[in-house]
Amino acid sequence: MFNLGVRCVQSTKIQVDTVLFTLVKLRNYVSFKTAARCLSVNTNIQRRFYSNNTMLNLKDFCISDYDVIGFDLDGTLLRYNLNNMVPLEYELLVKYLMEKKYPRVLLDKQFDSDFIQKGLIVDAERGNLIKLAADGEILKATHGTRFLSSAEIEDVYGKSRKWDIAQDYINDPLSAWNGPVSEKLRTLLDYFDIAASLVFAQAVDALDETVYTNTNVLQKNDYKVWPDILSGLIQMYSRDHFASGTSAYFEALKQNPEKYLLKTDQQVIQLLRELRSSGKALYLLTGSNIDFANFTASYALGPNWRDLFNCVVSFAKKPGFFFMQRSFLQNNNLSEVPNSEMPLQDDLLAKGKSFSQGNWEQLNESLCKHVLRKDVNKTSRSLYVGDNLIQDVYAPYTKASMDAIAISEEMFENKSSYEYYKIIQSSSWGSYFNLNGRPTLWFSVIENYSKLCISQMDVIANVPVKEKIQCGNQHGFFPNVPNGQLVQ
Ligand SMILES: [Mg+2]
């Protein structure tokens, strides 16, 4: 689940080991079978974009090309009712800050779905939120909830409108996952942490209104709000808190799952069954602890959800899972067995099918041996599907030589009839994919590191597994490019 984009950089090792990392934590298949048909329904702007023979570079995809296929759970196979879940997160974070004695004026502020957008970046010490272009230029920024003018952005970040810390992050998002950079910059990349942007901004406003009234707040560079938000997220999502009943977030979901969780489309479940029965090696890889994963997966995928996969890995600690040499631990009775670390050379699937933590190399080797019946060194193609652009797309692509499918509900940002439209679009921040014709950082990550970008799993669930999906664009969006993202 949670990749809370929540990295626990200031926590002790014990805390880190007990926290669900989410920082890294969302139907309508339109059967465009040919690129030409895709283009035929798109705008004349799109036709302009695809001039100059760029048709030659159109991306395509066929799921049966892959031998080993991994799936993220939260936001991928399991979707949430965002209209209920995001306000719950907001409410709990505000409550947490009030317990930390934040100014009471914070309670007067309201949930504002329009201020929320996936992919915002926290400039923690300045109390700012920023939205970046692909090259790192700041497209929009706020101090607290107030949007900065262009001149103010240049006053704070320089004429180039670039923040050096953000440049470091763009150059190597994984190096910034922990360590000094992550104390200054946070990315809010999934629906488990996007409410944090609003709470952070409103808390900065509350302090400016009541504590820093005689300060030039745009020059102030030592806000301490983010560490409190982070500890609030840890309180909500720490894995031990599901069993102990000490997280109001988990308790709300336990008491009212139908309010927060969606049943996974039967066609998606059927796709998994078909892939597995055709001999593909399927695994589920989630940041959630096994007890919470079992709770949500049982609701969404059914009580026999484990049977859909050859292997289940919980508390996987992505993105490190894809490139670090962490040991697997056994799961038993919905909990990780203490001190059950398995040697890195062990044959995983000879010892069960549900594990915690671990590493990609060992999992891949065992899946190849037991499912594909071939040596890992023989060519096998791997695919990973997930919604977090860094841990589910960038990391597997760059560190584990996999192709990746990016799930982005923001592809519905111009579809006002979409049920969760209010959460996934923001008129304040503008398109998730571009602003004034310039691609955002996240658009470029999708374009560069994903094989395909879809709004939901349902989109590909009823495409025959051996059928080639042709995107109709070189960026990988299917069935078509979200409106408004085109570079002018
Ligand atoms: Mg996810």
TrEMBL record:
Query: Where on the tree of life does the source sit, at the highest rank?
Result: Eukaryota
Q: Does the keyword Magnesium apply?
A: yes
Q: Which residues cross the membrane?
A: none
InterPro entries, sorted: HAD-like_sf, HAD-SF_hydro_IG_5-nucl, HAD_sf
Q: Name one GO molecular function term.
A: 5'-nucleotidase activity
Q: Which UniProt keywords apply?
A: Hydrolase, Magnesium, Metal-binding
Family stated for the protein in its record: Belongs to the 5'(3')-deoxyribonucleotidase family.
Name of the molecule in the record? 5'-nucleotidase domain-containing protein 1
Which organism is this entry from? Answer: Stomoxys calcitrans (Stable fly)
Q: What is the lineage of its organism?
A: Eukaryota, Metazoa, Ecdysozoa, Arthropoda, Hexapoda
